[in-house]
From TrEMBL:
Main location: endoplasmic reticulum
Protein name, per record: Polyisoprenoid diphosphate/phosphate phosphohydrolase PLPP6
Transmembrane spans: 89-110, 147-172, 184-203
Membrane in keyword set: yes
Domain Phosphatidic acid phosphatase type 2/haloperoxidase: 88-199
Alphabetical UniProt keywords: Endoplasmic reticulum, Hydrolase, Lipid metabolism, Membrane, Nucleus, Transmembrane, Transmembrane helix
GO molecular function terms attached to this record: sphingosine-1-phosphate phosphatase activity
Length: 215
């Protein structure tokens, strides 16, 4: 009859006009994250919208830094004359060290750069601190918050202050331009979960007699 149908094109020659839903969702989330982080970085520089509050934000930054917490915990451990207090402080020290190692490993794997509007004037940084994901301050704040609430007897107002401190540390990371919003959210979740690991591996005179013999 002379009529014929066109042969179908090979699959590799067909243009994919419908990208995956997951790819679109992740790209959209990333775009929203970067946009929101830049808008919320109101203390990123002296000329920013809330630039006058930058010194206060940097004080909050130091309050969540690992070095003051490590030195303070180690000093308390050396000065403590109570076996119960030593046990709690030794486990806090273990938690802080575990947090530092885990955050460093994740940052080294993900290698997400810090926001472009961040000023690299942070308090005592190491090589992996050039990376942004996750926020080590947020991770540490959530971890310390759960630890303190579970192992210290505090009045309700003090317990509320501890929770507020952890949240403020997380918010300050975005306001200073140090991190994107998702860096902080993941950091808070990671720190919250990390406490469960510390509880599971709790160090005691029975499980780690050699450590307690040093004190």
């Amino acid at each position: 009859s002379g009529s014929s149908t066109a042969a179908p094109l090979p699959e590799e020659d067909c243009m994919k006009l419908n990208p995956s839903f997951l790819g679109i969702a992740l790209s959209s989330l990333l775009a929203i994250d970067l946009w929101a982080s830049k808008r919320l970085g109101v203390c990123a520089g002296e000329g920013s919208a809330w630039g006058s509050a930058r010194p206060l934000m940097k004080v909050i930054e130091v309050s969540g830094h690992g070095i003051p917490w490590l030195l303070g915990t180690f000093y308390g451990l050396c000065q403590s004359d109570s076996s119960a207090a030593r046990e709690v402080l030794l486990n806090l020290l273990f938690a802080l060290l575990l947090d530092l190692v885990l955050v460093a490993v994740v940052k080294g794997i993900v290698k997400r750069r810090r926001p472009t509007h961040n000023k690299m004037d942070m308090f005592v940084t190491i090589s992996v601190d050039k990376y942004s994901f996750p926020s080590g301050h947020a991770t540490r704040a959530a971890l310390v918050c759960r630890f303190v609430l579970h192992h210290l007897v505090l009045a309700v107002p003090l317990r509320v202050l501890v929770v507020l401190w952890a949240l403020i540390v997380g918010v300050s990371r975005v306001m200073l331009g140090r991190h994107n919003v998702t860096d902080v959210l993941f950091g808070l979740l990671l720190g919250y979960a990390l406490y469960s690991v510390v509880e599971y591996c709790w160090l005691s005179p029975l499980s780690a007699p050699a450590l307690f013999a040093l004190w």
